[in-house]
Amino acid sequence: MAADPATIAMNPTPSNPRDVLLRVDGLKKTYSAQGRDVEAVRDLTFELVRGELTCIVGPSGSGKTTLLRCISGLLEPTSGSVVLDGAPVKGPPRGMAVVFQEYGRSLFAWMTVRQNVELPLKVQKMSKSERTRLVDQSLESVGLAHSADSYPWQLSGGMQQRVAIARALAYQPQLLLMDEPFASVDAQTRADLEDLVLRVRHQFDVTVLLVTHDIDESIYLSDRVVVLSSPPSTVREELEIPLPRRRDQVTTKELPEFAHLRAHVFRLIKRESGAETPDAHDSSSLATAGEL
Amino acid sequence: MSLLRTIAYAVTLPLLLILAWWLLTINSTNFFVPRPGPLASTFVDTWFSERFTTDVVPSLTRFAIGVTLAIVLGIASGLVIGTFSWVRRFCEPLLEFFRAVPPPVLVPVFLVVLGASDTMKVAVIVSGAVWPVLLNTVEGVRSVDSVLSDTCRSYRVHGAARFRHLVLRSASPQIMAGVRQALSIGLILMVISEMFASSSGLGFTIIQFQRSFAVDAMWSGILVLGLIGVLLSFLFHLVERRVLSWYHSQREVQRGR
Amino acid sequence: MTRTGGLPGRVLIGPVPGLLGIAAFLGAWEVAVRGGLVDDRYIPPASTVLVAAVDYLDDGVFWRAVGRTLGAWALGLAIAATAAVVLGILIGSSGVARRATHSTIEFLRPIPSVALIPLAVLVYGTSLQSTLLLVIYAAFWQILIQVLYGVQDVDPVASDTAVSYRFGRIARVRYLVWPSALPYVMTGLRLGAAVALILAITAELVIGGGGLGERIALAQSGGALDKLYALIVITGLLGVAVNLVMRAIERRALAWHTSVRGEVPV
Fold this sequence. Notes:
The complex is a heterotrimer of chains A (292), B (257) and C (266). Helices cover 38% and strands 24% of the residues of chain A. Chain A has a domain at 1-95 and 207-280: P-loop containing nucleotide triphosphate hydrolases (Rossmann fold, 3-Layer(aba) Sandwich). By secondary structure, chain A is of the alpha/beta class. Chain B is flat, with a radius of gyration of 23 Å. By secondary structure, chain B is an all-alpha fold. With 266 residues, chain C is mostly helical. Helices cover 74% and strands 0% of the residues of chain C. In chain C, 39% of the residues are buried.
């Protein structure tokens, strides 16, 4: 086990008061399966700054999805707290929207694209005109205005994930949570979707928390990256990404800072995996994750 | 061209079979085997008469009421049992048992309790047709996709909206499979309940024909039941295509990929 | 079937809640009758029915009736299955045959088997053939439909492989069609077995000629209510047993299969 640096990294910095939207404090999640307790998340503390895009990156099986489910209120943590904009999260709050990795399973196959995006608004009893406006706007921004009346299964994987993103945007969340959103699409689509997220986060002025195992992706997208340790998870390190705000798939990734950050995060994670298996054979999976 | 071919495929074998039947019975004196011509005229004489309103309509009305009740009851209790896992664990062996009871054996029981009334016949139909709907609904509710369920939770779609937009719709393929079974069981029970204790209805009339050795009329009655079965399956297909169009198209797309 | 968000009731797992459910049902039945909520001229108390059911266990006539019912069931199912599998493979492996028979099958299949009761009585009287006719007719379609689906489900790549290695017709059926269709055949057999039992008992009930169904009819006409209910409980248990046995056979037969496929919703 590597030394736990979470407490050092997460010392509050009063000299620089931040506009915190979400605070995760001492989060711990233990599953009990067949009488055996499995500790998925040990002790996580971090903050999301309003308006920023934060990525959580960690070795596979590091409890990223568990963490995201706890934050979104889908899962009750064993201990610790999640506070969104001053209100503790108990069950899914109104201010959050989630985009799941399994786009094919998170869309209603019996509803058109428009109905899929509209449903959460309809349930809120929002007026018809307001609904139509929001749905049109969000579909337009993800480039699906022409597919509004198609069914999800008539669309490609990338387009289905766009529908899920449009649904999240139309919901007007303060915080957009994305769980490995691009892990199941091909490389080109993935790059397109990454740029789409960068565009809409500004357009809709939304704070984003994105979970990924892809180091390049996390650095490319983020203002801030939280690196998790291997399970049971703690925060290995939290680092700011001082890249120019305007990102580009080619030029940003050519920057020397990008390479430095990438190497830094890579070593952190490799050390995490290496601590578990001295052969460090499994770092190959990270190498593929870091391609693109 | 392809339409012509489809029609040709659909009618050739039935026509050949009828032709073979006609040829084989042309000189037949077998008492039990009807000939196409006389059977057709008996069919018209027997069923395009007041018998249609005195026997066919009441039978079908009881069938419709019974099956509708069974579907509503089955879906409602299936939703409850499928939603709460403790209810399901509590009920499971009982349901296995009730499903396995051959529905016609309940006819004598209902006869004792309700007498030879219309209520009894409807009750018999409900008691047999409710199980496939109920058990399929339970299965459908249980197999609601967990990601979709999480999606609903995180977008705060709950209560009645969740049932309407998530549970009912995603269980609908299983529910429809149950409805299909309910229709055929309901039809069987409609006939049986009338054969057992009745003074009118299709089942009763056909048995009367048989007892009085009116063989052609009996065959025509069998034909009526067959036609009802075919008509029901046709109507079911129409409804199913509408209700589950998303499901069938989705499966086609998935298979094509 | 894994499901998230289940109740964490650790005590209420295993067979306990199910047994509780049965006990609660029997208890409610007993109390409802004894308390006068339900007229005992219509429904005897649960305990009386259970005693009558247990009494049957050393009744030779009863066991002969069970034997006859199960005999008709097994024989009918075997004939229906053989016919359905042979015909299904013949029809299913030829596109022309499949399309030419489609309308006929879709017409004959929904005909309720009980429509044949008067015919059976007229031709065979109360003999075993009457019961067999109904059992075979009912079970045949269930199995045939599944076999037809199964034969169409042959993996196209496997089929191409067989063609490129110049498999003969028999070899194709033996090594390609049959194994692919087997899961569907087993599903059809399971569904057919349940239907066959229903029809065997129904035929005996309506037509007579021995068997459990006739015992039920006799108990009803003789006004022996406790026996009537006991017999119904027994037929239910018999149905459960048939389902369990068929499922066990299905699992055994498909143990080699990587994924035991679901049934076709037809």
